[in-house]
Amino acid sequence: MKRIFICLFVIASFTLSAKKVMFRVNMESWPKDSTGIQVTGNFQDEAGFATDWDPGTTAMTQGVADTNIYWCVVDIPAFALYEFKYVNGIHGYQQEFVPLESRVNYNFIDNRWFYLDSLSNDTFVLPDVRFGGNAPAGKNLIRFYVDMTNETSVDPTGVHLRSDMNAFVGTASYMFTFDGVVHEYIDYVDSGMTTTHEYWFVNGIGVGGIEDLPSWCANSNGYRAIVAPRDSMLPIVCFSFCDVCSTVGVGESNSLNFTVVPNPANETVNLTFGYVDQRTISIVDYTGREVMNVKSATASLQLNIETLASGVYYIRSMTNSGSVRVEKFVVE
What we know:
The chain is an all-beta fold. The protein has strands at 5-6, 18-26, 37-41, 58-59, 61-62, 69-77, 80-88, 112-116, 123-125, 129-130, 139-147, 159-163, 174-177, 182-190, 196-203, 224-227, 232-233, 237-238, 258-261, 268-273, 279-285, 290-296, 300-304, 311-319, 324-331.
């Protein structure tokens, strides 16, 4: 029988870069397997377990105040990207199916992820997301993206998100980049709310690195703004610009771009792509609210936009391989 360890009591070999991380998952509405709830990922070896991605060795402890919450704490090196999944049982086939909004979405990877960017003397607590879901109960996910292509250099401290969600603390929300160009960060807000959240992207951690936004995409306070009444993957925008960067990202081809005709439009828009692929097409308004979502496997597509109110929108195209492109269009 496979030996299961409660990860709270695992003592990893001490290093100067070690930091405690607490994994948490909400199992509400899921029948719990009799063998327990586990977490698996590429952190297990670093945390003192025999091997990474073993679904049956890192058991989680059931909460007392809320018995739907399971948790465990490990010591792992900081300044590293970690991927993981929760397991309802001890077998690989019992791993959760991670929704698109929460996945790595790079090189076909469908794991959850986080970047451990701090050595501060505390425990990095992951959100108690619902098993197979995007966010904790009563919360919505917002995934922010910023393209640094047009910046001369990226500050050694990295790119950060400064927002009302982190009290505008410059070091609170480090944005990770999978491809060296687009930086991203996942945050959570109360679900079912129409609250407008304000934010900036920052090249570094100081106020001197805050992007200088054009007036047409900044609110009266000078911030970007977003309303997220549902889980939202925001369009990729260029640092200090309202739209996508004018140049193509590192290692990517112009064939990934697509055209939107006519633009402005009032009844239909025609999308033409550089090649045939499985794609998810979504349209979001200027607040980041998704107003249309369709799937396509063709090189061209016509969308009916008669029901959309006049204004500025973004069309976001994501292929199954994780390539993302965004184009702006106007509804008259």
